[in-house]
Design a protein that fits this description.
The structure is a homodimer of 201-residue chains.
Chain A: H1 18-37, H2 40-47, H3 51-58, H4 61-69, H5 75-84, H6 91-104, H7 109-120, H8 125-144, H9 149-169, H10 180-196
Helix pairs in contact in A: 1-2, 1-4, 1-7, 2-3, 5-6, 5-8, 6-10, 8-9, 9-10
Chain A binds a DNA duplex (18 and 18 nucleotides) through residues 11-15, 18, 39-41, 49-53, 55-56, 60-61.
Chain lengths: 201, 201
DNA sequence: GTCTATAAATCGATAGAC
DNA sequence: GTCTATCGATTTATAGAC
């Protein structure tokens, strides 16, 4: 897991990369029990170090959380590229498939789950309301050239968030165990409807 | 709010119904900041009493939470009656409309929001996974006579939970401000699809 | 770079006076 | 029935030894 570089001169920066071990442990704790439920002590214990070291490297609990939330992917890039390029009548399928591909990648999951848990925790509302929705999702709708994106994208978000919540956080069967193809078959038509189908009013 | 009965003999039970004031304050705190975020002291302060009184009336924090979760309605009765009686092709619309009617009632909202917040808090998963879904939702699907209810109802739940989350917890516009009719128009076709439409596999 | 020791705040819960 | 006082357990965070 830790790449040792024997030819290195001078003092080693940290031992076998304690810093990264702390961050990984923090991500898993945040994903497992949320921000409020995570204690610095538990993170330190999971990383096999003392609690003071966590503060030493990452400052306050808030700072550690921000560091743990650093996503391996830029959702704007990945989603926009996959969804906007191609036929608009298949955008729903591409969006669901891309979402699942990112979420099913074990490298991404802890940070993503921690992020969604934070959104659903009291006080985390702005992350979705003022962040992901207007900054990532609505612009995608605009670039797709659909009408009323500020209504269509929240409708879409309500379905995608519900799926994410049940599959990855609450772990409801059979949703949690279905493969990506089956989920795409189930959800793509609904997402497509929100993108280009009829609207109320 | 408090019915005074002047002819009553003997010592009055509590003052102007402190017990109910504590419960109402607890409901609002649990709905506002969740179970973990709620402190006995904050409940007591909101009710204008001392913290020890809360323990005196309701025992532990868990007991208080259970008392605060007591729903004014039995979801099984309300949902089953509204959804099962009538044409199966309109069941989606009746389900969405009934859900919204219950949720938009100010008397129900604090307890319902507190309940969903608990579901979305780490450790609350069994409430939905082993409670609401198999006890309330799947039986409704069975009584409707649809095929594969154990797949259809989780699909349906993912959409309804997403709507509930965005409208009442995260408060995302325009979902939060739309009236029930507009929401029914937007979501009933999707819910109906999950009930009686095509499935993957 | 890593740890011990501890400060300072807050929590749930209890005992007991009035 | 209501409150004061307080215990004991946890928490984040810091200071400083090694």
């Amino acid at each position: 897991m830790t790449s040792v570089r024997p030819g290195r001169r001078g003092r080693r920066p940290g031992s076998p990369d304690t810093r990264a071990a702390i961050l990984a442990a923090a991500r898993e704790r945040f994903a497992e029990v949320g921000y409020a439920g995570t204690t610095i002590r538990a993170v330190a214990a999971a990383a096999g170090v003392d609690g003071a070291l966590v503060h030493h490297y990452y400052g306050s609990k808030d700072d550690l959380f921000l560091a743990a939330l650093e996503l391996p992917v830029d959702p704007r890039e990945v989603l926009a590229e996959a969804v906007v390029s191609g036929d608009r009548d298949d955008a729903g399928e591409r969006l669901v498939r891309t979402f699942l591909a990112v979420w099913d990648d074990p490298d991404n999951q802890p940070a993503l789950i921690a992020l969604v848990r934070r959104v659903l925790e009291p006080g985390g509302e702005p992350l979705l309301r003022d962040g992901f929705l207007p900054v990532v999702l609505v612009p995608i709708g605009e670039r797709l050239g659909i009408d009323r994106p500020e209504l269509r994208m929240p409708l879409l978000a309500s379905q995608v968030l519900g799926l994410i919540t049940l599959r990855y956080l609450v772990v409801v069967e059979p949703l949690a165990s279905m493969d990506a193809d089956a989920l795409v078959a189930a959800y793509a038509p609904v997402v497509q409807r929100y993108l280009t189908g009829p609207l109320p009013g």
